[in-house]
Amino acid sequence: MAQGGLVKCGQLKDLAIQTITQAGGRIDYAEVVDQESLEAVEEIKSPVVFCIAAWFGKVRLIDNMEINI
């Protein structure tokens, strides 16, 4: 979605949470942070990292994805 022009981090997080929840997961955390400072950002203006952790049953999955637009 970010590659398609969606730069509002709140909307990106909501979409990810909705997708994981619909797949049966439970979100531990979801945050979009600046790639250098790791501070949370509200809008993508420079490289960021989407950090997310979710539970699927007894398994906790953690992933980080770099987003450059």
From TrEMBL:
Coiled-coil ranges from the UniProt annotation: none
One GO MF term attached to the UniProt entry: ATP binding
InterPro entries named in the record: Pantoate_ligase, Pantoate_ligase_C
Keywords linked to the UniProt accession: ATP-binding, Ligase, Nucleotide-binding
Biological process per Gene Ontology, one example term: pantothenate biosynthetic process
GO CC terms, sorted: cytosol
Keyword ATP-binding: yes
Name of the protein: Pantoate-beta-alanine ligase
Species annotation: Corchorus olitorius
